[in-house]
Design a protein that fits this description.
heterodimer, A: 671 residues, mainly alpha, two-stranded antiparallel sheet, 5 strands, 4% strand, B: 318 residues, 11 helices, 70% helix
Chain lengths: 671, 318
């Protein structure tokens, strides 16, 4: 199994080379994306086959001399492989059509398969060296993809900050693995997990992993690069980065904190839970304030990562206190949500790409009415928006329902700190869920509904067949796994058993379709039945009304408070609410202190006919203070180091000599 | 035979939710009118209004899509299913296990989601203003509702509403501080979600103040009838919810005989009547709030709910 996956990775690397060779020809796109689609499907099949199986390893004579490079697929790896390869297959299918519009395909084609290979290899790596190597390869490949449109200044800045954050994240993970390896330098995951280490080392490893993996996943306040870098890439790559790469970071955190770092202290869960809950609320609140479709989606990724980490934090706390079933429930909820987020976030990014290509703009304030011109792709977008807004009976609600059930189990946690923090985190998660609903209403309503706000939106055209197929495929999975969540949950059982020692109880026959995570508590949810009830009642209403009531329907121009378009009976598009206007109440209530949201109105002096001006500003402290400050610091340090390039040969020799002396002294002192 | 009885009871529960909702709304209006020394419309006026709307042609805005026409059905269906999941006169009906209290909250959230989308689809300023305000209110009311759910679920040990009602009915709980906080918060959330005073005025069309009415302004005919009926069912849902958690007396236990069921129906009617009088009295004595004062009101509900949950996390006996 592992060998088959390694062959898949090799095939991807070969496709990367082919992409570099053929990048200026149309065949390049078909070879790279078609090939990636095929390889992803094979890898997906292998991953599905190895879901329930035993961990089997393989050692290649690569990497560090004498140690080799180990790979293994255990249930955790297999579950994330399914996620990665399903997302990769969908993105490749989408790109078969969407890639045609690429301005400079040679900046995308060589890196895309390498990116896919790196994400697969991170998940199956079974030693620290391989893990870090492929992690860095994943970062660099995605950085190259982000820089595909390098002519825009914002993209260059986003790429630079991404590179900085990715390097810092890798450095922290390197330190974490350094602590894990211990004095004997055991790099294999099996021997790391078996080793005993002092308590502070385990805690330090967990914190380093939270910071290192969290910066890649987009936890606040390490998230600043994400909403700038993800939207800058081509849309299928945005989907991969938001839907899949953040999950590889989640995998890294689970692997280190649950598997490698050893027994957890109760406060680990508290830290992770707090980071997750705060990320969820701040991420979605900022998503509500943005105008660019892809930026909105990227901020919403931060929210969902927050939900996933909140679940992981609960699982850590439950596990540390020996509540295995509750830990299993929280972990299963987090993993299920990670999978669901890949499905609907990829769909939404595909849709954003379709909007960008079809309408020529991604700004919500220039869109509107796309449902009339993009009839087919508007439907999977609506399904994905409903799923991410956690509406029953779709998959996003099923995973959030499980997460809330885990929160309800937490009064049994003995520690006072957790007793205070869990209800507060629960309130934050509820707040995030209601913001998410408002955010998706705003996104969908402004882009697809109403009347077009610009001629670009009025003349938009539908996406191509491949793109639509990818969107419909993923949206159907959102519906399927929403109606039958046990299809996924039963496959997550081995993972829960591996990490918490117990899996959620499985029930026989038809009753398996009802979610009943903790039988003793009787809280149940049957999505299929709820969906059936909604369909029957809605159908009855439609039938009854059309049978016994009036069936007449007339279209008319609505009253627009006196606003009229010159020379036509229609309402002017500007009479509609704008995206900024829609979020104004929420901005005023919630963002005034958090993001220093300010509205400025400049009125012309009395008697003049100049228009009044309105401006709205928000400041994100994490970007202005944190990321830009860090970028300036690195810039200054680089300027200093730059002087070292212009020394005389005599000085270089002296420096080499001094370095050698220091090294020798260190070795002498150590031994 | 047993199954048929169970199915019939479940159907009766659904039918009551649908048929009694306009009556409840009409009764509240009548009591309110009498309190204001007006004669008021007859109690059955709501049914007549609905019948008239159903018979009329539907007018939709020129640029609206299929979503505008489909939304009333989605709103109606989601609200009806949610209302039928709340125990009215008996617990543990045939399908009561298909969703818990969180599912009920989420179903109401779905109805609101489509309501807001439809408002934006109408392409007018009023649709936008209503959806925008609804989003702000919901952003506080929904977490407040979930906190109340947490409070109740922690006391009863489950989030399954039938089991909660049975547990509360058993009298195992005396007076508890957390439940009192939850009740106050639930009333506040209920007033917000059903668009009553002091949050919204169900009888106004004044653009400065309206929230829910602004969203449905472009609806007419059968579409409006469905939305009005869904609004009435939402009021019934919140009253049934308060009744079955905080005043579960008289509710028929699982497998009850005809006498017990009749008692359940009678006591349910009595509870709804008492709730309607209380609501009308409250609305008569209070003024509507400014839009930007409402977050304070709903935020207070959120804080009360959070306090109730916190108390239960601290000590299981509070």
């Amino acid at each position: 199994m592992t060998a088959a996956l390694l062959l898949c990775a090799l095939a991807w690397l070969a496709l990367g080379a082919a992409g570099a060779a053929l990048s200026r020809r149309d065949a390049g796109r078909i070879v790279v994306y078609g090939g990636s689609l095929g390889v992803s499907l094979i890898a997906l099949g292998v991953a599905l086959a190895s879901l329930g199986g035993e961990a089997r390893g393989i050692t290649l004579p690569l990497g560090l001399p004498g140690i080799g490079m180990r790979f293994a697929v255990d249930p955790l790896s297999a579950a994330f492989l399914v996620l990665v390869d399903l997302g990769a297959a969908a993105a490749s299918l989408y790109a078969l059509g969407y890639g045609r519009h690429e301005a400079e395909p040679w900046r995308v084609l060589p890196f895309y398969p390498v990116f896919l290979a790196a994400m697969n290899l991170v998940v199956i790596a079974a030693d620290a060296y391989g893990f870090l190597l492929f992690w860095e390869l994943m970062s660099l490949a995605s950085w190259a993809l982000v820089m595909a449109d390098h002519t825009r200044a914002e993209t260059r800045q986003a790429g630079f900050v991404y590179l900085l954050m990715a390097s810092a994240g890798t450095l922290l993970l390197l330190l974490a693995f350094g602590l894990l390896a211990g004095p004997h330098g055991e790099y294999g995951f099996a021997s790391i997990a078996a080793a005993h280490r002092v308590r502070w080392a385990g805690a330090a490893v967990m914190l380093l992993a939270l910071l290192g993996a969290g910066s890649k996943a987009g936890l606040v306040p390490l998230h600043v690069w994400l909403p700038r870098a993800h939207p800058a890439a081509p849309s299928h790559v945005s989907a991969l980065m938001s839907g899949v790469m953040t999950k590889v970071a989640v995998y890294a955190f689970i692997r280190i904190a649950f598997d490698l770092a050893g027994p957890a202290a109760w406060w680990w869960g508290l830290v992770v839970l707090a980071a997750g809950a705060v990320s969820a609320v701040l991420g979605v609140l900022q998503a509500l304030l943005e105008d660019d479709v892809k930026t909105v989606l990227a901020y919403s990724t931060i929210e969902n990562i927050g939900l996933i980490f909140a679940g992981l934090g609960l699982a850590l706390a439950f596990r540390a206190d020996g509540l295995a079933l509750a830990a299993s429930l929280a972990l299963t909820a987090a993993l299920f949500h990670a999978f669901n987020h890949m499905l609907f976030k990829s769909t939404l990014f595909f849709g954003a790409g379709a909007i960008q290509h079809g309408a020529g703009t991604r700004r919500l304030s220039e869109l509107g009415g796309l449902i009339h011109r993009m009839k087919v792709s508007a439907v999977p977008m609506l399904v994905a928006a409903m799923a991410i807004a956690a509406l029953p009976p779709l998959n996003g609600f099923a995973s959030e329902w499980l997460l809330l059930q885990a929160v309800l189990l937490s009064p049994s946690l003995p520690q006072f700190g957790l007793k205070l923090a869990v209800p507060a985190a629960g309130a934050l998660l509820a707040l995030a869920a209601s913001f998410a609903s408002a955010c998706l209403v705003r996104l969908y309503g402004m882009a697809y509904l109403g009347r077009p706000r610009s001629t670009a939106a009025a003349t938009a055209h539908e996406a191509d067949g491949m793109s639509r197929a990818a969107m419909i495929g993923l949206a159907s999975l959102c519906v399927l796994f929403g109606l039958m969540p046990t299809l996924v949950l039963s496959h997550l059982a081995p993972v829960a058993r591996e990490l918490t020692g117990i899996s959620l109880p499985a029930r026989p026959g038809w009753s398996a379709l009802t979610l009943l995570p903790v039988p003793a508590r009787q809280s149940s949810y049957d999505p299929l039945l709820i969906a059936l009830f909604i369909a029957v009642t809605g159908g009855l209403a439609a039938l009854g009304l059309h049978r016994f009531g009036s069936r007449a329907l007339r279209r008319a121009v609505p009253w627009g408070c006196g606003f009229l378009t010159e020379g036509s009976a229609a309402l002017p598009a500007g009479a509609q609410y704008s995206p900024a206007g829609f979020s104004q109440p929420i901005r005023r209530v919630f963002a005034t202190t958090l993001f220093r949201a300010r509205d400025e109105v400049t009125m012309p002096p009395p008697g003049t006919t100049a228009p009044a001006r309105f401006a709205s500003r928000i400041t994100d402290p994490a970007w202005d203070g944190g990321a830009l400050g860090l970028a300036a610091l690195v810039g200054r340090a680089a300027d200093r180091a730059n002087r070292l390039q212009f020394l005389t040969i005599r000085r270089y020799l002296a420096m080499v000599f001094v370095t050698l002396l220091i090294l020798l002294a260190t070795v002498a002192l150590w031994a | 035979m047993g199954l048929i009885v169970h199915l019939a009871l479940q159907a009766l529960e659904m039918a009551i939710a649908l048929a009694a909702a306009p009556l409840l709304t009409g009764f509240v209006r009548k009591v309110k009118a009498r309190l204001q020394r007006r004669a008021g419309p007859p109690v059955l006026q709501v049914y007549r209004d609905l019948a008239r709307l159903v018979a009329k042609e539907a007018v939709v805005p020129e640029d609206s899509s299929w979503l505008f026409r489909a939304s009333p059905y989605a709103i109606f269906a989601a609200t009806w299913v949610a209302a039928a999941l709340v125990p009215e006169f008996a617990t543990n009906l045939q399908f009561s296990w298909s969703g818990d209290l969180i599912v009920i909250v989420a179903l109401l959230g779905s109805a609101r989601f489509f309501q807001m989308l439809a408002a934006l689809d109408s392409g007018t300023a009023f649709g936008g203003i209503g959806a925008s305000r609804e989003a702000m209110l919901a952003s506080l009311a929904e977490p407040a509702m979930l906190m109340i759910v947490f409070t109740v679920a922690l006391v009863a040990g489950t989030s399954q509403l039938s089991t909660i009602a049975t547990y509360m009915h058993s009298g195992a709980e005396g007076l508890r501080l957390s439940l009192a906080l939850g009740l106050v918060a639930l009333v506040m959330v209920g007033l917000t979600e059903t668009g009553r005073f002091p949050v919204d005025n169900p009888a106004t069309h004044l653009e400065l103040t309206m929230v829910h009415e602004a969203m449905v302004l472009e609806y007419s005919g059968r579409h409006l009838a469905l939305i009005e009926l869904a609004g009435a069912m939402r009021l019934l849902l919140y009253m049934s919810l308060i009744a079955c958690i905080f005043a579960p007396f008289g509710i028929a236990p699982p497998g009850a005989g005809p006498a017990s069921l009749a008692l359940g129906l009678l006591s349910y009617a009595g509870k709804l009547g008492a709730g309607a009088v209380a609501l009308a009295g409250f609305e008569t004595t209070i003024a509507k709030m400014r839009v930007f004062r409402i977050p304070n009101f709903v935020g207070a509900a959120l804080m009360l709910g959070l306090l109730g949950t916190l108390l239960l996390f601290m000590s299981a006996s509070l």
